[in-house]
Amino acid sequence: MMLNNKIAVVTGAAQGLGEALCLRLAKEGCHVVIGDMNEKGAAETAVKAGRTGRKAFSMKVDVSKEDDVAALFKKAMDEFGRVDIVIANAAILIAEPIAEANAAKWQAVMNVNLFGCFLTFKHAAKIMKAQKSGVMIQINSKSGKKGSAANSAYAASKFGGIGLVQSVALELAPFGIRCNAVCPGNLLNGTLWMDPEKGLFKQYFEAGKVPGAKSIEDVKQFYMNQVPMRRGCEYEDVENVVVFLASDLASYMTGQAINVTGGQEMK
C-alpha cells in the first residue's frame, strides 16, 4: 500500500473514472471522502471502497456551490482530523459548435470544471496550509493542452485548469503542498464516452465533430486512429499516475500537467 492511512477527498466519484480512482486509492490504503451530485452513486462508491477495509464516507456535493464544497471538507475534518490528498475530478462536457452553442450550457461547463476546481483547491488549501503538507491533483484532459473543435467550453475550462494548477503550485510550495494535473487521453471504454444517451460518441456524432462520420462506430474508429498506441486510455492508466503523484515518489514534482494519452499528446 503506497498511501497507507492517508485521507483522500475525491469529487465527481459516483461513477466512471472518479469511482475507479476512489477504489484504487482505498486499495492503496487511503480512507476516502466522496462528493458527487449523484448522492446514490456516491454512497454506492463508498460501500465498494469500504469493502477494502478502509473507511469511506459520501455526501451530495455540487462543486460549483461553495457551501457544498466547504461542507465536504468539514466532513473530512470531522471524521479524520486532516486531509492528505485531494482529487478534483468533478467535470461535465457539453459539445456544441461555437455558432450554435447555448450560452447557459457553455457557462455551466466552466462553473463545474474550472470554478468547481477552484473551490475544491481553496477549501483544501485552508486545511493543508495549517498542516504544512498535502497533495492536490486535478483530473484535467488532453483537451487542456490542445483545442477541441465543437467543444470550446470543455477545452477552455481545461486550459484554465492547468493555469490554476500552476498558480496554486507556486503559491503553496512554501507550505509543503504539491499541486499537479493529470491529462488523460480519450477514455473510449468509459461511461463518459459510452453512455447511449449522453455519451461523447453520441454527442460528437450529432455535433458533426468528425467530418464524414456516418455512424457512432465511425466516430469511435476516428479517435482510436489518432492514438499511436492504438487503444483508448483506460481507468487503470490514469489511476497509476494519480497514485504516483499522490505518493512520496513524486515529492519533487509540482505544477506539472502529466499526459496519459498513449502518445497522442506529447507536450
pLDDT averaged residue by residue: 96
Please identify the top-level CATH class: Alpha Beta
According to CATH, the fold-level topology is: Rossmann fold
Work out the oligomeric state of the chains in this entry. single chain
Give the strand tally: 7
> Secondary-structure element order, as H and E?
EHEHEHEHEHEHHHHE
CATH architecture: 3-Layer(aba) Sandwich
Number of helices: 9
Shape: globular
Rg computed from alpha carbons, rounded to a whole number of angstroms: 18 Å
Strand content: 5-15%
Main pleated-sheet profile: 7 strands, parallel
User: Order of strands in the sheet with the most strands?
Assistant: 3-2-1-4-5-6-7
Helix content: 40-55%
Total domain units: 1
User: Would you identify the CATH H-level superfamily?
Assistant: NAD(P)-binding Rossmann-like Domain
* Termini Cα gap: 31 Å
Query: pLDDT below 50 for ≥5 consecutive residues: which ranges?
Result: none
Structural class: alpha/beta
